[in-house]
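Now for a specimen:

…
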Amino acid sequence: MTKKEREEMMRKKLIEMKQFEDRLHGDGVTFVGGVDEVGRGPLAGPVVAACVVLPADFDIPGLDDSKKLTEKRRGEMMKVIHEHALAYGLGMADEKTIDRINILEATRGAMRIAIKEANKMLEERHGGRLEHILFDAIKIEDVDIPQTSIIKGDSQSISIAAASILAKVTRDAMMVKYSEEYPGYGFEKNKGYGTKQHYEGIEANGICPIHRRTFLKKIL
């Protein structure tokens, strides 16, 4: 694929991924937030959620589901998000919270925090509040903001894709730091997911403070 063909493909993808946001903007909605999470499946570490509000005229190709991008590309797009987003927020639920209330409720809690933080930034920067939220295959009934749940939203919506990148880059950096504090599990590579190296680390060292005990019932 030539550079020109790649650029054309990315431009087409951008247009496709803005359809939900463009429809809402066309209906008079100004502030649309995309929400996504990273870290529901790992054996260790937190679940991290993000909410990102992009401007209606956002026109920079390259945003996509964070899982489809290289680490380098995610870092590049993280800078784009920080520079061009109208507002963004992060939320987190640690392993103790996950064990206490289950991963689904912990995820929803992290999302609520992310939405609250994005709203705070939106008010400070633009004097407004979120008018609609786009979720990736989930809804939070007790959030009093109109919302839409989109299946595979991180590859269908530009705002959700941005949130997935922000959440993943943030969580990955946390797990790299944890790898220094708790060596032997390969957190810098597996980010807490259940790889062979991770299981071997558990067998050799036992569990560490950031492990999710409810995810390791067969081992404990």
